[in-house]
Every structure is written in C-alpha cells, then in structure tokens.
Specification:
Radius of gyration: 21 Å
Structural class: alpha/beta
Number of helices: 16
Strand content: 5-15%
C-alpha cells in the first residue's frame, strides 16, 4: 500500500508505505519482519493521498451519490460506472491475454509462518471481485482469471518471476518484503496496481499506479489534531512508541516533530526493540514522564499494552493505534481485557461499520459474501477493492486497445479517484500524488468499532478534510535506512 506514516506506522522512504494487518492478537512481541511491514503501514491513516488538500466538488458529489443510491447498475461499483462491462473481447493484447481470458496475478504472504494468513484478504477480494466482474461481462467481454502468488514473506522475487511468465499485470496485492520483487518485475516489464507498497524502492518504482501515496516530508497529523481538541490535557505530553530498527526509527521521530509542530509537548519517544516480551517497563516510563496520551505506532495487539497499563495504573487520555489493529479480533480482545482508555484508529476510507449508511460499503460486502463464507472486513479488504476498482475501470476504458500501457495510462489520469466512494478522493497522476488531508476516527469498544463523529468533526461526508491535517516534517532517513 503505498502508504503514509500514521498509527502503526507506515513510512514511505523508510518503509513509509506499507500496511500490514496482523490477524492474531498476540500477548508478547511481534516477529521482526512483521514489525517492519507494520510500521510501514501506519502513516496517514492508511496513507491515502491526493493532489488536492480536500475533495473537489465533483468528488463530493460522487460520494453523496454512492451514499444515496442503493442499487448500482451491473458492472458499476458505488458511484464508479462501467468498472466491468460486456464487449467483443477483441483488440489489444500482451502477456496474460489468451483469447477471451485475461490472467491477473495477486501477491500476498498468507503462507508465512511468522504471521499466518497475512494478506489472505487480497486473495479473497481478488476471487470475489473477479466473480462479480465476470458476471457483469468481464473486461469488455474478457474473463478475469486470478493467479494467487503466495510469497510467504521471503519468496517475493520468485513469485514475481512466476507472474512474469503468464500474467497481464499484478493487481490488488502487497508484500511485507516487497523490495525483492522490484528488480525482477521491472526486468520483465510487468506492470502493477498494488493494494499497497512498503519499501521506498517499491513505492518509487516504475510501471505502476498506486491509489495510495505518501511523501517522506509530510505527516498526516489530522487524527492527533482532532484528538487534542477533544482531549485538551493530552497536549501536555504525548508518549510515542516507535521502533529501534534503522529503517523504522524515523517514523517515531516524524511523529514527534509533527506533534511539536502543533505546539504540543512530547513526553517520551521510545525506540522499542522489534520483539517486546513485557511492555510494563515502557508503559511505566510513559507514566513517570508525565505522558497524557499514547501513540502506539508499532503495536499489533492491544492485550499486552492494556495489561501493562492496568498493572501500573497508567490512565492516558487516549491511545492511538495503527490500522493493523482495526479488526474484529481486536474487539474480542477488548472484551477480554475489560478496562482500557479511550482508544482509536484513523482511516482515510469509509469504515465497514457504516455499511447501513453508505451503499458502496454494502455492495462491497455483498460481493465478498457471494464468494466467501469467512470474509474479513478490515483495512486490507478495503485496500484490495481500492486497487481492483482502479484496474478494472481503467482496463474497461481501454476498450479494444487493452494493453498494459493503456491500463497504466488510464489508471494514472484520475484527478479525484475514490474507488466509487469507498475512499477519500486522490489524484492518481504519479506527478501529483500527495498525502491526503482527509481522515476519520473510529473508537474501540468492547462490542465493536464505532465511528466517532464528535471527535472527527466531519466537513466532507464522513471525513474531516483540512490542510491543517498535514504538517511538514524531516524524512529522518539514514544511509542504511
């Protein structure tokens, strides 16, 4: 996910750009590889980006349309029309196109032993979207065939090479260790529209269009700004839980500078090791340093954090986690913990909890349930749809000139792409990509995630979009980062 840096911290140039969701709630530390991806995810609320600071009038109109129209035409996704459509299945060509079929590769890491199931959502979304798309006529009459490429974290290059043999493009996937796939992908001229990217090399690579973007000099501070408004005492001291890994340490430093740019105090910035067996010493430092709010930029489970807080009687005004915490598993964990402080994640896409208000969410769910009995609704699922809608809409727009070059050209020409209203609008032109200034906050409860409208102070649909939600920061990159 070409992401930005935010809770659970993605980072672009330092890994500012990955979004890794952890399925299981762990009671101890996290595998180093998982931490790396994780922290690559956090930024900017999943790091949506765009060329304009706020949605333009037409973008706002499309979002409104998706919220008020309950029935989408066949082949339309939310407010996006002609995503898939029938046709003669002729014209164009290239690797992966064979008569009336078009093969698409999807990258993921579910078979790894460190965090089994990582990226399974990408495969599930691909299956579901292809089934839905083919029923609507496919890509101008061509049937989409999915090749699932499980890199298991450490076999990215090999799987990319496999895709080079038979796939038209890579779509809707992502890998924690995506650096290894850059050279072989470019060498075989395989284009992609990924769900997310992690390494700076993968984020900046050619032959791709990403519906998510970030820059190392801009930090999405919107959620923190809004939380500081709602919890004024937090301004006196934010505790930042970062990482001591060379490639990830800059994320904590950027968070520190961003908070200070707001005129507030950082009470402690902790470069934690990759594997933490006991969080009590870290939480005790927060308490003794006068920390009023906690940014857990590298946490993959709430249980050890909240347990340590209860053990030392640390009661912050709020805790902000990254998107990997946004899952049904976290809700179950919250119910088991009992007492915990106000806790949030922030997103730049509509949360699944608002499906009764936004038909585009209900449609995405219906597409998933028609294909899978065990569909998960989290950030990875949303990111998968984000990439697939962009690819399919662009491929369909190519008509009888279906080539990889045409798809990439079309995909990179949307001034306010929003995946049919699922995401805040972004400019997909690589030259205009920038971090989005739109955000919304979800609060964790023991019975579910709740959209916190009072804290979000929405001014564009469900989002708070404001230039003040971005702040300039140093990249803090190191030679080895």
């Amino acid at each position: 996910m070409t992401l930005a840096i935010s809770p659970i911290a993605p980072k672009r140039r330092l890994i500012l750009g990955g979004i890794l969701t952890t399925r299981r709630q762990r009671s101890t530390g996290v595998p180093l590889a998982t931490v790396a991806v994780l922290i690559g995810l956090a930024g900017a609320g999943c790091g949506r980006s765009g060329s304009a600071a706020s949605p333009n009038p037409s973008a706002s109109g499309s979002a409104k349309a998706s919220a008020t129209s309950s029935v989408a035409a066949a082949g339309s996704f939310g407010s996006a029309s002609k995503v898939c459509a029938p046709g003669p299945a002729t014209g164009g060509g290239g690797r992966g196109i064979n008569g009336k079929t078009i093969r698409i590769g999807v990258m993921g890491d579910p078979g790894n032993t460190f965090d089994p199931g990582l990226g399974q959502e990408f495969f599930d979304v691909a299956d579901a979207f292809a089934k839905w798309c083919n029923a609507a006529g496919g890509i101008n009459g061509r049937t989409v065939v999915i090749d699932k490429l499980d890199a298991k974290l450490f076999n990215v290059a090999a799987k990319v090479i496999d895709a080079c043999q038979s796939d038209f493009m890579l779509v809707g996937g992502g890998n924690g260790a995506d650096l290894a796939g850059v050279k072989p992908r470019l060498a075989c001229k395989l284009g992609q529209i990924p769900a997310y990217t992690v390494s700076p090399q993968a984020t900046a690579a050619g032959l791709q269009v990403t519906p998510v973007a970030l820059t190392p000099q801009k930090y999405p501070i919107g959620a923190f700004r809004l939380l500081a408004n709602a919890y004024p005492a937090s301004k006196a001291g934010l505790g930042i839980a970062g990482s001591n890994l060379a490639s990830l340490a800059p994320a904590g430093l950027q968070a520190k500078q961003a908070w200070e740019n707001l005129g507030y105090k950082v009470s402690a910035e902790q470069p934690r090791p990759a594997l933490v067996a006991n969080f009590r010493p870290w939480i005790e430092q927060f308490k003794t340093s006068g920390t009023k709010a906690d940014y857990e930029g590298t946490a993959t489970s709430i249980v050890p954090i909240f347990t340590a807080m209860n053990d030392v009687s640390f009661k912050p005004e709020f805790v902000v986690f990254g998107q990997p915490i946004y899952s049904a598993d976290t809700v179950k964990a919250a119910a088991s913990v009992g007492t915990f402080p106000p806790s949030y994640v922030y997103l730049s896409n509509l949360p699944w909890e608002l499906s009764d208000q936004y038909p585009v969410l209900a449609q995405a769910k219906s597409i998933m349930t028609a294909s899978s009995r065990n569909a998960k609704y989290d950030s990875f699922t949303a990111l998968g749809f984000n990439a697939w809608v962009l690819w399919a809409q662009s491929a369909t727009a190519c008509g009888n000139n279906l080539t990889q070059a045409c798809v990439l050209q079309k995909a990179g020409s949307y001034p306010a792409y929003d995946a049919g209203g699922l995401f805040a609008p972004v400019n997909t032109n690589p030259a205009a990509h920038d971090v989005s200034d739109c955000t919304l906050l979800l609060r964790l409860t023991s019975t579910g995630w709740v959209y916190d409208k009072a804290v979000t102070e929405p001014n564009h649909g469900a989002y708070n979009c404001d230039p003040r939600n971005l702040t300039a920061v140093k990249s803090f990159e190191t030679a080895g980062g």
